[in-house]
Specification:
The protein has a seven-stranded parallel β-sheet, with helices on both faces. The chain has a two-stranded parallel sheet with strand order 6-11. Helix 6 (215-224) crosses helix 11 and helix 8 packs across helix 11 (318-337). The chain is α/β, with parallel strands linked by helices and 338 residues long. The protein has helices at 15-26, 38-46, 93-114, 153-157, 163-185, 215-224, 240-252, 271-281, 285-288, 305-311, 318-337, and strands spanning 6-10, 30-35, 55-59, 78-81, 120-124, 142-143, 190-194, 198-200, 237-239, 260-261, 301-302. It has one domain: Rossmann fold (3-Layer(aba) Sandwich). It has eleven helices and eleven strands. It binds NADP nicotinamide-adenine-dinucleotide phosphate. Belongs to the NAD(P)-dependent epimerase/dehydratase family. Dihydroflavonol-4-reductase subfamily. Residues 7-263 form the NAD-dependent epimerase/dehydratase domain. GO terms for molecular function: oxidoreductase activity, acting on the CH-OH group of donors, NAD or NADP as acceptor. Keywords: Oxidoreductase. Pfam families: Epimerase.
Length: 338
């Protein structure tokens, strides 16, 4: 496989997508950034003047409104499909989470199959598609990329299901749709899926107010700003910058084709650890951080080492990730107040 050079990134104006865009641009690729919001796309472009010649923006519709990628894929030879609804504030889980996640994957792959140049599609799935909440330690066990969340579609969309459970279903069924597409349609490209757990780190996408932070970083900020100590549903995490490297390596490494990877730091986290790192690294920390303690759940593991080895990703430490994000969030807060 020759290295794809012109890459369509969906979800480019989101938390993870913007870092993927930056990693591609840093390495000399040409990028087409897909977004639902042209003003947000333009903000991305304006804030990267050094890359203006290699970054173009394309508007796509919401996945719940029959989005088509036919125009967006024209001329590209690789795709990184990051976009998918990630929110726990919903009124209709099937309509807002599950169906659009699946529709997004299908429309990207459909369009890619029509654009003969596309060689590879990398898809951001999630550890949510791997997690089996019924599997508990002891005895100790380790999740790998072989594992699948056992939720049925009916369970994921049941009216009494929480948005957290529906989100897990959205990621599972969207990823399954991708593997099924490859099996049945045998397109001229291969697919790689990445299943990261909680993803934290500094933001590179346009965010006007701290209230608009993406779900995962909003949890870090809740601890740092003294709002609350959220529940850590899993002790696994990855830094967004390492995850961006994993996406680009998954795109360019010939032998990654057809594989599924869990991309995760070997170090575990808890929100209690966030509290401790904020207290240790910021003068104001002790007075401000959320009340309460939370131990790291060290009863089971997730094998992120295979992805580290096969994709050549080195994982940052949690202390650095917390520091870099909180430093940035405090500056944003200062600007909001002034
Ligand atoms: N953050 C984590 O902890 C984490 C962990 C594992 C996997 N993931 C996965 O990573 C991907 C990106 O998440 P993120 O953390 O970067 O969240 P995010 O900042 O909320 O980004 C989500 C992106 O998806 C797009 N999107 C959301 N709903 C959409 C819809 N209905 N139709 C079209 N586009 C839609 C958004 O587009 P606009 O920019 O146009 O609004 C945004 O760019 C998702 O697939 C998520 O499931 C995230």
């Amino acid at each position: 496989m020759s290295t794809p050079l012109y890459i369509l990134v969906t979800g480019a104006t989101g938390f993870i997508g913007a870092h993927v865009v930056d990693e591609l641009l840093r390495r000399g690729h040409r990028v087409r950034a897909a977004t639902r919001s042209l003003p947000k796309g333009e903000l991305m472009k304006i804030s990267r003047p050094q890359y203006a010649a290699r970054l173009d923006i394309v508007q796509v519709r919401d996945f719940s409104a029959s989005a088509s990628f036919t125009d967006a894929v024209q001329g590209v030879d690789g795709i990184i499909h990051v976009a998918s609804p990630f929110t726990y504030t919903t009124t209709d889980n099937e309509k807002e989470l599950v169906k659009p996640a699946i529709a997004g994957v299908k429309s990207v792959l459909d369009a890619a199959a029509q654009e003969g140049k596309v060689k590879r599609v990398v898809i951001t799935s999630s550890f949510a598609a791997v997690l089996d909440v019924g599997r508990t330690a002891p005895p100790r066990f380790a999740y790998t990329s072989e594992d699948w969340n056992p939720l049925t579609y009916e369970e994921a969309v049941a009216k009494d299901t929480s948005a957290v459970v529906a989100y897990r279903g959205s990621k599972k069924f969207a990823e399954l749709a991708a593997w099924e597409f490859v099996r049945e349609r045998k397109p001229g490209f291969d697919v790689v899926t990445l299943c990261p757990p909680m993803t934290f780190g500094p933001i590179a996408h346009p965010v006007e107010r701290l209230a608009d932070l993406n779900e995962s970083n909003a949890m870090l900020w809740a601890v740092a700003s003294g709002k609350e100590m959220p529940v850590a549903r899993v002790p696994f995490w990855v830094d967004v910058r390492d995850l961006a490297v994993a996406h680009v390596e998954a795109l360019v490494r010939a032998d990654a084709g057809g594989k599924r990877f869990v991309v995760a730091s070997p170090e575990k986290f808890s929100y209690g650890l966030v509290k401790r790192f904020v207290e240790e690294q910021f003068e104001w920390g002790r007075e401000r951080v959320a009340q309460g303690e939370q131990e790291v759940d060290d009863g089971y593991d997730l094998d992120g080492e295979r992805a580290g080895r096969e994709l050549g990703v080195g994982y940052r430490g949690f202390r650095e990730t917390v520091r870099d994000f909180v430093e940035q969030a405090v500056k944003m807060e200062g600007r909001e107040k002034s």
